[in-house]
Amino acid sequence: MGYWSLILPSEKRNLTLNPSFERGTIGAGAIQSATLGSASDYQAAGAYSLFVVPNSNGTSGAYVGTFAAQNGTAYSYSAYVRGSVGVEYMLAVANTSNALAGSVVFQGGGTWHRYVGSYTENSSQNRRIIVRKANGAGAASTGTIYIDAVQAEVGSVTTPIDGDQPGCRWDGNPHQSTSFRPGTVRSGGSIVALNDLGAIVLESPGIGMADVQNIAQQYGLQDGALYQNTFAQPRAFTIASLMSGTSYPGLHAIRAAIIDAIKPDLTPTKQPTRFWYSGAGGTLQIDAYYDGGLSLESRAGFSETAGMRFVAFDPYWQTTVEYGTALLAQGTLSNPNYIIRRDTSGQWGTLGGGTINNSVYALAWLNGTLVVGGAFNSAGGTVAQRLALWHPLTERWGTLTGGTVNGNVATLETTASGTLYVGGNFQTAGGTRALSVAAWNGAFGTLGPGTLSPDPSDVVALHYAPSGTLYVGGAFTQAAGTRAFGIAMWTSSGWGTLTGGTFNQADVRALTSLPSGTLIAGGAFTAAAGTTARGIAAWNGGWGTLAQGMSNADVRALTVGPNGILYAGGFFGSAGIVAAPNIAAWNGVAWSSLQTGVGTGGAAVGTRGVLALDVDASGLLFAAGSFTNAGPLSILDRIAQYNTSIWLPLDVDLPTSNVIRAVLAAPTGELYVGGDFTGADGNAASVAVINNPGSATAYPVVTVRNTTAFQIRVYELANTTTGDAIYFNLVLVPGETLTIDLRPGSRGITSSVRGNVISSVLPGSRYATWRLQPGINNVAFFAEPGPEVTLVYRPRAWSADDRVAS
Predict the structure, then answer these.
(1) In this structure, how many other beta carbons lie within 10 angstroms of the beta carbon of residue 259?
(2) Over 60: is that where the pLDDT of 601 sits?
(3) Which of 336, 325, 353, 347 is nearest to 782 (CA)?
(4) What values do phi and psi take at 254, rounded to 5?
(5) Between β-strands 686-692 and 775-783, what pairing exists: parallel, antiparallel or unpaired?
(6) Distance CA 598, CA 613 (A)
(7) Torsion 766-767-772-776 (CA) sign
(8) Distance CA 93, CA 16 (A)
(9) Which of 558, 538, 534 is nearest to 548 (CA)?
């Protein structure tokens, strides 16, 4: 089988100055009025390639890279080219007048292919490499030609060289100078077929799918085990070869050549042999260490059948070319008026391109539809008095059947059966008298006989308990004529009060319940049923306190995580005896702080606090309000996330100072944010769709270059498809390059100025698992504007059977 090659180290220099076009079209020029540019649509090395749009002239194309050729010297020239199917092209070396010294003609196939030529210089002069149509088949085609990894080198051809490749260096400015690869690295060099070394490959067991190890935890009280994970094991494979000489010295010479090619001390540091295999119709590579089989134990005359054994500690095959893309530092958030959404890909935007024309105070999820309440009277151009519906599937705004309410909506609550409860400061709902609270289930209705007073009252909190009871909180003092300071309940039997007394102030602002069924009320009161309860109290047939509550007694938001932890936010300095600025957690026994809380550094308690809380299905807490720092972080906007141990920023920057009053983590994975913000444009993470064509997980290298004259802060690199995210506390100075290498075995985060900067990664990041899964990945990046950002990787395959599209 002539499908096996290996890479022999070879010291070489690439004489072209910008071989992979990472810095645009430097050194390239048009032939016959072609249009040139640098793009990240396709690539074979790095994240970019040169694109050439030829005109209809049969020799239209481009030249690349002038180099000084010396008389009598043999040169090789090469390039990866992706041309239109059926069109005849030419790779050539020419002088500056485009007179050819050597050429190769080929036909485009719609995929990347490396073409190689050679010539011997007959007169010292400047030369350049040409890729153009060959004036043959498809001569009039104007289909785009992509060119990458252009190379001119002395002697025979070797693998592509530029200063960004492992072990290589630039001789001057990156992508503006020649580049050098020493003979001490095995990742690049001469491509030598095993057949040419005298090893006729007979078979190669072990190159298929790698063995795996399944990890499980044995059950303690029943049969079987709990599956936890699957890991690919190091790959052992054999290359069984026939080595035939015409004499004993001839056989030994073949063996010596093979041993010299694979021996572990071929380079100063022990490096694996890089093999190329093309048996499946494409070419893949794998790095492996020699493990035995050349001990000369089976010889027949002047021949030997040897089973050379190798171990690939990274068991996956990789492509011989690179894939990549350019990432934007941030994206534009257009017209973010009062409500925005982050979709499941991580992309921030407005809802359907339309806007709401005034403040949003409340958000709720009703059978797959978003309900929005506030002070507005239109949504997306549709008349919507203080209440609107957003339909995610159709991406359209609508209103509730039967009308709306005639005053501001402050709170919303939904039930599993499809009932919506609305609270605020209004007197009618759908034209029917409904003082401050109403129910909707296809049409508006009131909550039975009786009402709240004064008329109208401010209802700012609703909570529907699984028992079928609706709890109502606000600034009222009576319910159905009975004393009810700030809180009442409604059932199918009508209005009622909570036994055991009431609060000393009619100011309840938040309601929720614990998994046990205990009701939790938050507000501006200081006592419940005569007992000190500063801003928060618990009711389960009678009132109780939670370690006497908060200082300043002003709780505005409550939520419970999937682990049963109660979170309370508002304007306060401590919870119980614990310093917990504006936010705290209750575990059923005691209060704890969320790092150092939220607020504004040095600001008095009560000026920058929490107005809204929600928790997603994974337990991630979202807190929003008027604060500008969360724990040790200065945040761009008044919203942050807490992962049960540390605060992390959100990748959005609204256009003006703002107050966020509502946040909803929808069960479908979107995040909705509403409040008082408005403006022409904001900024948010840019999201790139990366299609990893490999059959296995891939690990990229991300490079962030600060090419501006000012400092740039880097915030986040996230794969929203896999849930992996890396959060940074890092500022790049002008000229600094940040390299985020996520490849197994070389994983690290380094700066061209400061070296290792792994300490800039915030706790809570998923740095160790960051990867590109096979297929579609949504990759979000967020930084201050200005840097050049690229993501480069090699697709990987489980088996040599896989052919990765190029």
Answers:
(1) 13
(2) no
(3) 347
(4) -65, -45
(5) antiparallel
(6) 13
(7) positive
(8) 12
(9) 534
The one-letter amino acid at 578? V
Alpha helices in 37-178, H assignment, sequence order: none
SS (H, E, C) 761-804: ECCCCCCCCCCECCEEEEEEEEECCCCEEEEEECCEECCCCCCC
Report the alpha-carbon distance of residue 472 to residue 330 in Å, rounded. 42
For the beta sheet containing 748-751, the strands, ordered from the edge strand earlier in sequence to the opposite edge, are: 323-327, 788-793, 701-705, 737-741, 748-751, 755-756
Residue 74 to residue 44: CA distance in whole angstroms: 26
Among 367, 471, 4, residue whose Cα is nearest residue 200: 4
Please state, in angstroms and rounded to a whole number, the distance separating the CA atoms of residues 348 and 344.
10
The string of DSSP codes covering 225-239 is EEEEEEEEPPEEEEE
Q: Percentage of residues in the chain with pLDDT exceeding 90?
A: 81
Q: CB within 8 A of 120, min separation 6: which ones?
A: 72, 73, 74, 75
Q: CB count, 10 Å around CB of 95?
A: 15
pLDDT tens for residues 123-150?
A: 999 999 999 999 999 999 999 999 999 9
Q: Quick one: which H or E segment has residue 260?
A: helix 248-262
Q: List, for residues 27-77, the tens digit of each pLDDT value.
A: 999 999 999 999 999 999 999 999 999 999 999 999 998 899 999 999 999
Rg, C-alpha atoms of the chain: 34
* Alpha-carbon distances, residue 661 vs 463, 624, 626, 627 (angstroms): 17, 7, 9, 12
To the nearest 10°, report the CA torsion of 214, 217, 222, 223.
20
Q: Are 761 and 767 in contact (CB under 8 A)?
A: yes
CA atoms within 13 A on the CB side of 22: 29
CA distance 585 to 643: 13
Partners of residue 145 on adjacent β-strands: 52
Mean pLDDT score, 455-484: 90
Do the Cβ atoms of 296 and 284 come closer than 8 Å? no
Inter-CA distances, 738 with 47, 48, 770, Å:
16, 18, 17
User: Is the pLDDT assigned to residue 93 strictly greater than 80?
Assistant: yes
CB 337 within 8 A of CB 692: no
Distance, CA of 636 to chain centre: 19
Residues in the chain: 806
Residue pointed to by tokens 């402050």: 410
In contact, 341 and 348? CB cutoff 8 Å = yes
Is pLDDT above 50 for 603?
A: no
User: Is 50 exceeded by the pLDDT of residue 616?
Assistant: yes
Amino acid code (one letter) for 91: L
From residue 731, how far is each of 629, 712, 735 by CA, in Å?
Answer: 18, 5, 12
* Cβ-contact 278, 257 below 8 angstroms: no
- Residue 515 tokens read as 């998994």
Give the DSSP per-residue string, 346-359: S-EE-BTTB-BSS-
Q: Distance from CA of residue 53 to its chain's centroid? A: 32
d(CA 161, CA 168) in angstroms, rounded, equals: 7
Buried b (16+ CB within 10 A) or exposed e, 584-605: bbbeeeebebbbbbbbbeeeeb
* Maximum Cα–Cα distance across the chain: 114
